[in-house]
Design a protein that fits this description.
With 467 residues, this protein is mainly α. Helix 4 packs across helix 5, helix 7 packs parallel to helix 13 and helix 15 packs across helix 16. The protein binds arginine.
Length: 467
Amino acid sequence: MSHNDSDSDDRLWGGRFQEPTDAFVQAFTASVDFDRRLAEVDIEGSLAHARMLRRIAVLDDDELSAIEKGLQQIREEIAAGDFPWSVEREDVHMNIEARLTALIGDAGKKLHTGRSRNDQIATDIRLYLRREIARAQELIRDFQRGLLDLAEHHADTILPGFTHLQVAQPITFGHHMLAWFEMLERDHGRLSDCADRMNVMPLGAAALAGTSYPLDRAYTAELLGFSMPARNSLDAVSDRDFAIEFSAAAALVMMHLSRMAEELVLWSSAQFDFIRLPDRYCTGSSIMPQKKNPDVPELVRGKSGRVFGHLVSLLTLMKSQPLAYNKDNQEDKEPLFDTLDTLLGSLRAFADMVPNLEVNADAMREAARRGFATATDLADYLVKRGLPFRDAHEVVGKAVAHALNKGCDLSDLDLAELQSFDSRIGEDVFEVLTLEGSVNARDITGGTAPRQVRLQVAQLRELIGTG
Ligand code: ARG
């Protein structure tokens, strides 16, 4: 059959039309090529709706069991790849409904009683996102557990901490990993918040105004694991704020991953040489034999851009839309699906790659030693001996300039040289000028001292459980 002579049987809404849909328009408006990803949750929603229709006696036992069997067969056909998807049936909902009727006859035609594709799609996306958010959260937890192991293992490993990408103060590698943990912890919480808020059920809103059938919405909601039926039918079918909220949460995860990615790229360069990424996460160059490129962190850094873009797409899609449902909303799916694919893929890669990176503790230590990372400690030492902080800052600045001139570190100056900057300096100064002295001194909640890192690892293990 050509696109232009589809008869009214083919179009589930064909009754009021005098001419067939233009073939181009049909292809242009169809969404089945991408919304078929929702088939599984669409069937789940239909099964719950059918069971509720049985409960209120719109369906009898035979009809319900025919629908259940038919939907089960459709599930199997889809899984086996031999479901007859058709663009003429526009979207996932009508493809499944038409197939159901072809398989079981009249009972199939009753399934849509008291329902519209508007409340159906709003339900499907929620069911789908809810499941995928749970997967993203599991990956975040895997990643966090890997970070805790790494942090514990490297609670004492020293590296320079940076501000402005200039060596600032010595820190511990474990402390740095725990900073990444915290970013992910907030990401995890944001995903939980948005999953909770989205977990209300649109079914029963029908097209926009509710339905005249006495649907038992609470029962359907319970069957589908929603916390309650949506309170307002207009809002239920029309808003996609929950999708935007998810995209914003995903954008923040990607922003965090891009920051980690940037550090991994820097650290694995020959100039830093702080870490080696697992070979299986890198590629070589076809021309330069010495190269081992950090492709995966670079790609994740790059992919953050498309997720930010999808967030803006969805905001713009929703902006100024009058109530209630508008076809604009069909455009929510491709950005959402790509956001999910990007998010899950990036998290999966990082959850495995980062915990398995190899740490070059010698290079990190050497970089911290060379960067006057303990200058603040010398200033604090002078303050503890009675010098006001601003004066101490000035004194240490001069000592640093002197060491720079000599081409050595502060800890390489002898006591007499140090005393020439301030007579309060004594033999014990060398304890604070060492890297270990410096990190151990920051033994305050949230600080970089190895003792704090170990304490925090234990607390954070408790917090996220072994799940
Ligand atoms: N494919 C549509 C969407 O994604 C389903 C709802 C269509 N409703 C309608 N009245 N055309 O939003």
